[in-house]
């Protein structure tokens, strides 16, 4: 017949093994997790909870070991407690690796978001450059057409200036001829003998 204390020790051992297996499974899930950061954080929280439960059960087992009447049973149980503590230390290292992995994943996601923002800004800058280039090309075409109009205007003004000079020369010659004719007529009427 089992004593209540022996039953308690067996239950503690079974629960320690159960929590140990659950922690191993959760750590494996963390290693396999490729999902969003929230899923990784949730797994990490579950691991912490299981570790708390595992520590509590190990402490209960240690307390039970100290309460044993027989020294041999006490030493066997204390040895089991030490083994469980050593295993828990190795799992704690895995937990810290999982936390480090979680932090690194979070940092990488932050970097990814920043890179995405930079790519978006680069695309916007590129679009602005394309629009500016198009505007400059349109202005250049307009300048070329205005340049052609200005050259045509310059040619017309030069032609007008030459025509004006020719007109002035013709007017001067016509005026000189008119004055010569008037002088000739006046001379013949006033001085017919000359």
How much helical structure, as a percent, in the residues?
A: over 70%
Could you give the distance between the termini? 178 Å
* Residue runs with pLDDT of under 50 for 5 or more positions: none
Largest sheet: none
The tally of beta strands, per DSSP, is 0
- The 3D shape can be described as rod-shaped
Average pLDDT figure: 82
Write down the secondary-structure element order: HHH
What structural category arises from helix and sheet content?
mainly alpha
Number of helices: 3
GO molecular function: SNAP receptor activity
GO cellular component, one term: endoplasmic reticulum membrane
Pfam families: Sec20 (PF03908)
Membrane topology: Single-pass type IV membrane protein
